[in-house]
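Onboarding guide, step 5: your first structure request.
Type a short instruction followed by the sequence, for example:

Predict the 3D structure of this protein.
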Amino acid sequence: MSGTCMRVAAIVLAAGASSRTAPTHKLLAPDATGLPMIACTLRAVAASRADPLVIVFGHRSTEIHAAALRGIPPERAHLCLSARNHGTGLSRTLAAGIQAAGQHDVAGALICLGDMPRITTALLDRMIAVFIASPDRPGVMPIHDGRRGNPILWNRTLFPALMDQKGDKGARALLQQYGADMLRVEASAETVEDFDTPARLVDFSRLYTGG
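The system replies with structure tokens like these:
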């Protein structure tokens, strides 16, 4: 398949319970403009060249779905689904997204976390371009200051293994297995930051994430 016609899906995982920030769900927390975190993340992903765009919900799916739509332009095609076994761990949410993306003619998939509101479209497009230039590699990972970040782009050949992961560690075991052979892209701090505590949500509420 030529590089000009290769597609890479984006899978946004938004099914977690956000127990560390309870009673506030971090994906519903607003930035300084009032835009929910999940919408901030999706605004960047929806503007990228990734296709198709798959969003996986679970906990409080109705509320988070409504918030997510605020970050997606009406003309941007996307697929929303609910991970039936999301309560058993991140791996089941990941499997649901991979299964949906795998039904399309894609060479790989970007696995994006819903709580990455400062991720940029430019980084996502750069990761896709790097992968398309070397589609025989297991994937692409962003690196900031020597640390691996998110999102991770996975080759389609690893979709079966991604769907077979267990527990709440996502694809961590596969990263240990294939990490040395993955392509690397230098990235900024937003690829390694998190908003997993009430204090960090306060920080987020002061951020302007708009372009």
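Each response can be followed by summary notes, for example: The mean pLDDT is 89.
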